Amino acid sequence: MSMLLQTEQITKRYGALLVTDSVSLDVREGELHAIIGPNGAGKTTLINQLSGELQPNSGRIRFQGQDVTEQGIHARARRGLLRSYQITSVFDEFTVRENATLAAMGANGHAFSFWKRLLGDARSVEAAQEGIEAAGLAARADVKASDLGYGERRQLEMAMALAARPKFLLLDEPMAGMSVQESAAVVSLLQSLKRQYTILLVEHDMNAVFALADRISVLVYGKLMVTGTPDEIRGNEEVRAIYLGEEEVH
């Protein structure tokens, strides 16, 4: 299995504070790779560097074998490396279908100022419909975003990301703030997306992580502690002592 994303000793400092400590990470094409770690471990800062929102102070980031370290969010998105909420803003006055079509338009390089004309663009409409169906919102396609529940709104964010037809999807705590039922729906959704997309998942719900991930990387104080299969991570005594503790993970 080829490596789709690789980091080479990336480091991020804020003054004297070392937030990302020489992290070398690889994500294989087609896998769902999870990153876990205690609060303050530097997970969000790492994701921000992968998406292009932040630049590392040193080290390299490669995507599909190409050095993208100096590229920003939009350049990486055009390559297919997408972080769901960064595709475009959700417009409350637009329907699910219109929001997803706008996301597809952005991925196709169209200017949003011509959205009325371009909402009829066949390629964008088709991509939007694919994203809506994959995210489980087909029955709500013509509902305004303002009328969606919290869980449905997170599904819409996913639909918009998928409408952009990503090669690699960064998901930062997609189950945050959800009820047990809503979280279960997202787990089911991500199960259905596995193998169709390469996914890097940051999530606090350990049962979801262990149910979904092919491999798990543990980040502690900005440093990559260990990477392994769910069974390897579950059985790692150092990981349990630092992070998992006595929490029961099924």
Q: What is the assembly state of the chains in this entry? A: single chain
Number of helices: 10
What fraction of residues sit in β-strands?
Answer: 15-25%
Question: What is the terminal-to-terminal distance?
Answer: 27 Å
Rounded Rg = 18 Å
| The CATH top-level class label of the largest domain | Alpha Beta
Structural class: alpha/beta
Number of strands: 11
What is the fold named in CATH at topology level of the largest domain?
Rossmann fold
CATH superfamily of the largest domain: P-loop containing nucleotide triphosphate hydrolases
Shape: globular
Summarize this entry quickly.
This protein folds into two domains: 1-87 and 166-250, P-loop containing nucleotide triphosphate hydrolases (Rossmann fold); 88-163, no CATH class. Helix content is 37%, strand content 24%.
Give a description of the structure.
With 250 residues, the protein is an alpha/beta fold. 37% of the residues lie in helices and 24% in strands. The chain has two domains: 1-87 and 166-250, P-loop containing nucleotide triphosphate hydrolases (Rossmann fold); 88-163, no CATH class. The protein contains ten helices and eleven strands. The strands form two sheets. The protein has a six-stranded mixed sheet, sandwiched between helices. The chain starts with a strand and ends in a 6-residue tail after the last helix.
